[in-house]
Amino acid sequence: MLAIIDYGVGNLFSLQCSLNKIGVENVVTSDVEVIKNADRIILPGVGAFGDAVKKLRESGMFEVVIDEAKKGKPLMGICLGMQMLFEKSYEYGEYEGLGLIKGEIVSLKGRIPEELDIPHMGWNALKLHNGKNELFKYINEGDCVYFVHSYFGVECDEALIASAEYGIDVTAAVAKNNVYGCQFHPEKSGDVGLKILKAFCEI
Amino acid sequence: MITKRIIPCLDVRNGTVVKGTNFKDLNEISSPVELAEYYSSHGADELVFYDITASSDGRKLFTDILKETASKVFIPLTVGGGINTLDDFDRVLKCGADKVSVNSGAIRNPNLIKEAAEKYGDQCVVLSVDVKRVDGKFCVFAKGGRENTGLDALEWIKKGVENGAGEIVVNSIDTDGVKQGFDIEMLKAVCEIVNVPVIASGGAGGKQDFVDLFNTVPGVSAGLAASIFHYGEVTIDDLKKTLKDNNITVRL
Asked: Assuming Cys at both sites, which of B133, B148, B154, B160 could form a disulfide with B127, CB separation 3.0 to 4.6 Å?
């Protein structure tokens, strides 16, 4: 059973449907016991970092997610969920994240050429780093995935497994041991996205 | 590099897809769910659903269709039509929409964009504008293009972006359904004043119209069309190959 963490923000319908499509049993939950008993976890996310972390803490899931990840359970953060895996974010203030991936979340503003629109929204091609991570075993470099974000991860060093070119190389995916993060939305990235989810569910 | 998007638009009335010329004489075509699946597997980058039903029965039918589509199609879905309140945002987002497009609702209540952007984020709010030239000026029309609001289109769009609209759909009534190409002049004027993605709508008659659009207005992020795709005059796969041959970055 895969647990999709529900902390009250964002729409989880598409994510559930895409997991159903690839035949992965899943449950949307905010129950720490369900999370502890799940064999893998997805941390989704839409909205602002500070608010999301606050809600995760209030529900008691913050510590549980860290514990389960440290025990070796496969964990994947999507979009804001990926950003929350990092140590710190500077979105509307300064907030501490789960600290499972080294690095910080900063604004695209001031770091990409001025003529480019923010958010970075639309389909962009993946450039793979540090070899081909097992998350990408069914896809190829150059495959496009769907992004919508205004902040991004920096200084994640060897955890960087994919980037996308948007004036600069923007962090697209990270991995460290059993912890994975995608800045893009696999559940909105057509067949390529489904293949990434499938690979995660086979880890 | 971010790719230029190709977006088929499905106008849905009483559970079926329709498309007319200059918004009149609507013809029924096909099942929206089937059409959505077809487009998704043939290269569409995103889908737009416009709910053009007026009755509450029709609305229920629409959200059922949306939900069914969202459970089968894994690309971004934008929903418009009949969006007047935050409750309307909520209703369609829960059924699987990723973005919500406002048009007349924002004209009636200019706070709608701001409230929705604060609640759901800028990326969720699309401002759709029906524009027609009146005495040489770009004017905003409401009620499916039937009523001149007197609003200056460029001013209206600028204000919408300031209030938090994350994307603009510019639908030229002058070129809609005529199939003689997109409204290049109007789109250039809009791209000059905003820094959010602009989607061109109205006038696509063939592949070359998309090539001309992206070559002459590089600021445009996406091209939206309905009838040429619905009637199979142009397939999206084929269109994208042509765009690529013309050095326009697309997702293949």
From this structure: B160
> Is A120 assigned a catalytic role?
no
* Contact criterion met (CB below 8 Å) for A89 and A45: no
The SS3 assignment for B40 reads helix
Other C-beta atoms closer than 10 Å to the C-beta of B250 total 22
CATH of B5-245, one of 3.20.20.70, 3.40.710.10, 3.40.50.300, 3.40.50.2000: 3.20.20.70
Q: Check if the interface score ipTM surpasses 0.95.
A: no
**Is A144 within 8 Å of B251 when comparing Cβ atoms?**
yes
What does each C-alpha distance from B151 to B111, B143, B162 come to in angstroms?
Answer: 16, 14, 16
* Residue A106 C-alpha, separation from nearest chain B C-alpha, in angstroms: 17
Instruction: Look up the pTM and report it.
Output: 0.92
Q: How confident is the model at residue A190 (pLDDT cuts 50, 70, 90)?
A: very high
Cβ-nearest to B123 among A17, A121, A166: A121
* pLDDT at residue number B29: 55
Q: Is residue A142 less than 8 Å (CB to CB) from chain B?
A: no
* pLDDT tens, position by position, B124-170: 999 999 999 999 999 999 987 889 999 999 999 999 999 999 999 99
CATH topology of domain A2-91+102-201: Rossmann fold (3.40.50)
**A124 and B CB contact within 8 Å:** yes
* Spatial CA neighbour of B195 closest among B161, B218, B149, B150: B161
In Å, how far is A71's CA from the nearest CA of chain B?
A: 32
pLDDT, tens digit, for every residue of B11-42? 888 888 876 444 444 455 568 888 898 899 89
A193 touches chain B (CB under 8 A): yes
